[in-house]
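Hi R.,

As promised on Friday, here is the backbone we talked about, encoded as structure tokens. Could you run it through your design pipeline when you get a chance and send me back a sequence?
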């Protein structure tokens, strides 16, 4: 599916036309129509279209199958595995999502590490619905394992293995209607938008089972690996502070933060 086809569907979902979108994006209608007719979108146009459509700018570059500009990319791809492991805390700790999101906002902007590594060979997906969805999820700094965890814990989807997630992107496993709603919840996209982008209709309108997780994941894109470690430390403290509110089998078995240790 070309970007023009994607854009036409996104416009239709919103009940707009080319002229209305051009007005929202403060651009010429002829530029919109040129893309709808199959033309390659200019980066400056994508930056204008994204907020007009209610989408993240970097996501729209991925939808257009174009490289994400440096200023819109992940601050530290090395933080990925650490973000994956936050899934347990965000799924099971009472009240942790709002508190940890606030903690993310309190962390200062960090310098971008030196050169980002190239995309991993196994994450270079062929064209198709599954590959697009996984590229969007990687744009939240999630690997296959993290995607599986958040699909189950935050998206209300089935429990899948990391390898099965990879097969969805690479083609052996089809992106099904049952999966679409869960992925939409993790991405903080409407099921209608994701259906428009993938040509897969969701089985049922889905709502995130852990509201706020998708927004936290997005804001955590600006964190370095060291800052995500601080986030883990805070989640660990919460797990001890609220031990009485969670089941015995989910309590941490370690002694807990040192007495008198300042809250982070």
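Update: got your reply. Pasting your designed sequence below so it's all in one thread:
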């Amino acid at each position: 599916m070309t970007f023009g086809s994607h854009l036409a569907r996104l416009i239709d979902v919103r009940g707009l036309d080319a002229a209305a979108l051009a007005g929202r994006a403060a651009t010429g209608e002829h530029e919109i129509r040129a893309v709808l007719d199959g033309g390659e979108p200019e980066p400056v146009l994508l930056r204008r279209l994204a907020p007009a459509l209610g989408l993240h700018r970097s996501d729209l570059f991925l939808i257009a199958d174009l490289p994400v500009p440096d200023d819109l990319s992940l601050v530290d791809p090395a933080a990925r595995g650490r973000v994956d492991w936050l899934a347990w805390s965000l799924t099971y700790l009472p009240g942790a999502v709002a508190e940890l999101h606030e903690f993310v906002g309190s962390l200062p902007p960090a310098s971008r590490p030196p050169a980002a590594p190239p995309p991993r060979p196994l994450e270079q997906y062929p064209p198709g619905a599954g590959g697009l969805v996984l590229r969007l999820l990687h744009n939240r700094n999630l690997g296959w394992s993290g995607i599986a965890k958040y699909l189950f814990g935050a998206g209300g989807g089935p429990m899948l293995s990391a390898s099965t997630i990879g097969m969805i992107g690479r083609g052996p496993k089809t992106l099904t209607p049952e999966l679409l709603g869960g992925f939409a919840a993790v991405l903080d996209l409407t099921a209608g938008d994701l259906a428009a982008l993938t040509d897969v209709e969701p089985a049922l309108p889905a709502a995130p089972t852990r509201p706020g997780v998708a927004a936290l994941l997005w804001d955590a894109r600006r964190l370095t690996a060291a800052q995500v470690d601080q986030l883990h430390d805070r989640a660990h403290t919460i797990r001890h502070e609220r031990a009485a509110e969670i089941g015995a089998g989910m309590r941490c078995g370690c002694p807990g933060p040192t007495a008198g240790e300042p809250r982070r």
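One thing I noticed while checking it: Residues 3-71 form a domain with the 434 Repressor (Amino-terminal Domain) fold (CATH 1.10.260.40).

Thanks again,
M.
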